[in-house]
Amino acid sequence: MLYNILIIDDSPSMRKVLQKVIAMAGLPVECFEASDGIQGLDQCRHHRIDVIFTDLNMPNMDGFTFLKQIHQNPAFDDIPVLVVSTEGRTALIEEALKLGVANFINKPFQAEEIADKLHNILGEGYDHREDRTTEAPDF
Amino acid sequence: MITEKIELLKRLTFNILKEMCFLFQSEDLSSVQSEELPILVRIDCGKKYSLFLHFDPILAHTIARNFLGTAQEVIESPFLESALTEVVNMVGGNFMNATHMESTAHLSLPEIVEEDWRVFGHDPRTRIVTEAIKVNDRPLQLTIAEHMA
């Protein structure tokens, strides 16, 4: 059974790099992409997403606004979110943690860090989203 | 002081190119001429700093190739531009962290531009420092424009 991973970043090359790095983790995954928070929400609506990787600094809808939208929606607020960002300022990290972020990955990053964090989330005991009965609501 | 900032910018840039693109600072500091125009990327760190990175085109393709992990010699749009702007995004974000900018300061989206720091004209409230470095024996020019209040 595949894990559905959503990658949200306005940089097409960063999305490509993250897909490669995620593939190196050796888990059975299917990756979905979005270039901003609006597309990210759309992907969440159309697919049962198991993990979200998101940047913060994006056009149209930034990562913080996306996090607020996900956090406020009971259908999605239990999806583990990993922020992949250059952001290192304490106040903003704390704000993201209050919005339920599971973990931070600072850019530049090592491939092993992403693999480790993904394994921690999708390890034994993970309740695959396709087994749940919650339906994705229409926005 | 702005001279400390350019040293910081150099360290951050070398670190990011090493970590994400496996490229290293060249010890040989003799100048290298580019046959084509450089690719210029700008990012604004709050209202205080504008950073400009001029990439030699050969270095630009090497950065994109290594960043993407591909063997292709020439990287096509949009991935070439996307790789460079993502590198500059990392440089700008880490520069903001290292200079302890307030949480309300906003990091702009990096963009490829035609005009370099001269876009600020002779504004006396803007100080400029620029330094050429070499990465994998190709030139990369770093510029900081510091906007005083």
Walkthrough of the structure:
The complex is a heterodimer of chains A (139) and B (149). Chain A has 139 residues and is α/β, with parallel strands linked by helices. Chain A is built from five helices and five strands, in the order E-H-E-H-E-H-E-H-E-H. Chain A has a single domain, classed as 3-Layer(aba) Sandwich (Rossmann fold), CATH 3.40.50.2300. Helices cover 38% and strands 18% of the residues of chain A. Chain B has 149 residues and is α+β, with helices and mostly antiparallel strands. Helices cover 35% and strands 24% of the residues of chain B. Chain B contains three helices and five strands; from the N terminus they run αββααβββ. Chain B has helices at residues 2-21, 57-68, 79-98, and strands at 39-45, 49-55, 111-112, 126-135, 138-147. Chain B is globular.
Features:
heterodimer; A: 139 residues; alpha/beta; Rossmann fold; five-stranded parallel beta sheet; 5 helices; 5 strands; 38% helix; globular; B: 149 residues; alpha+beta; five-stranded antiparallel beta sheet; 35% helix
